[in-house]
Design a protein that fits this description.
mainly alpha, 5 helices, about 0% strand, extended
Length: about 170
Amino acid sequence: MKNIKKIVIAAAVLPMALTSASAYAFGGKDSGQHKGGMCGGGDMGKGMMRDLDLTDEQKEQFKEMRKAGKEQMKAKFAENGADMMAARQAQQAKVSDLVLADNFDEAAARALASEMVEKQTERRVNMLKKQHEMLSILTPEQKVKFKELQAEKMQKCQEKMEKRKNK
């Protein structure tokens, strides 16, 4: 019985340990990177917004939107937190079963990958929708400035990646 427990624990912990190690190896926690990957996707941080010379009304609108989003997330987790955790654990169990099986089941791997992509797509669409709502309060001039700031950020990102590549 003790061996079964050890095997189950190893099956659950091993994929997480491997994932953590690979994330760290590919530029994780201490590599100077931040949320959103190497250069952060559609960053709408306070720094970029500060450069747009927002009016007090716009600042207040952004503040309210952020507050509402935070409250929505809290409510969502309060309502569905246990279900979301159970789903995450079930998916992790599927991954563990797949990678620890005696024979690799490509069909099962493809089905699991498709399921994961579908969930990620849904999260990404929701994120883009929220960004659109937030950026819709900008004036046409501020939108042009926002695009310029994004282009500058992407240029710096490209330079940073080239510098790393040439090390």
